[in-house]
Each structure stands twice: as C-alpha cells, then as structure tokens.
Amino acid sequence: AIVESVRHLKRRLRMINRCQDKAPRVLLTGMASLLLAALVCSISATAADSTSSDPNVAVVASVQVWLKEIDTGQFQQSWDESSTWFHRICTSEEWIADMTRIRGHSGECTGRKQTKMEFQSDPPPHRGSATGEWAYVHFDSSFENGKRTELVALMKEADGAWKVAGYAITDQKT
Questions:
Q1: pTM value?
Q2: Integer distance in angstroms from the first to the last C-alpha of the chain?
Q3: Which of 59, 75, 105, 131 is the right S-S partner for 99, CB 3.0 to 4.6 Å?
C-alpha cells in the first residue's frame, strides 16, 4: 500500500468506509426480514392448526352461512353450496319448490338456538347415504308461525370442506 499512488489509496479507504457503513444496515434489514417471515409462518401455522384440529368450528361456520341463505330466501345459492351427494339426490328445482313451500308455511325465522351436534363416520345406510364423515347439528328455532326443530346434516367432502347434505324441519313437540 505504501508504493501505491495516492489515488488508489484514497479509493481503498473509501471502499473500506462504505463497507463499514452498509454492514449494520444490511444486517438489521436481514434480521428484520427473518423475524417478519418467522412471525408470518407462526401465525399461519396456528390458524391452520386451529381450524383443522377442531371440526366443530368448521361445521358451525358452514351451517351458519348456509342457514343465513335459507333465511333470506336464497334457495338456489343454498343448493349450489351444498354437497355433491345432496346434488345427486335432489335437483335444484325440487329444492327450491320444497323450500318455498316449507318456509312459506313457517314464516320468517325469529330466533335459533343450537341444541346438539354429533359426528358419525360411515352412518348406517338410509336413502342412499354416502360413506364418510358426517355431522348433525340440531336447533330449536322460532318462526313467525310457531316453534320448529331443525336438523342440518353435513358431510365432509373430498377437499376437507364440510357441506350441507340434508335439512329437515319439524314442528316442536310441546
């Protein structure tokens, strides 16, 4: 370095100074990026774990969305979002006609309370039921024209989603 020209020496000193200035910024940026990535992974893993480990949450969410469609008269949409098995046993025209008649008789839903939820794997065959995981959610419901008991049956689809596979509504016994 002693035999080098002054110009080369100044250039080397500038490069050394720049390297020292950038090192803390690069290190801090890298650490902040790693922490952010770790946080995102942790949150998404926790969210995925909570939904997959508790089928009750997924079933209740599906039922609430589906019943809201029924309550607002969106019968075609409720059929569209039901299970593939349900589509094989009931056409959309049959579903809309039945729901128009049933809900017309009952009137508007004024309240609904979940009373029971049960799960079954491969339930006993009835009316061509499919094998797999099933959930049954029972409600005591109030309608303009009286109290009713509602039963919503769901089945777990191949993609892991719980979809409605049946619906029954009966007068409550007093």
A1: 0.66
A2: 102
A3: 75
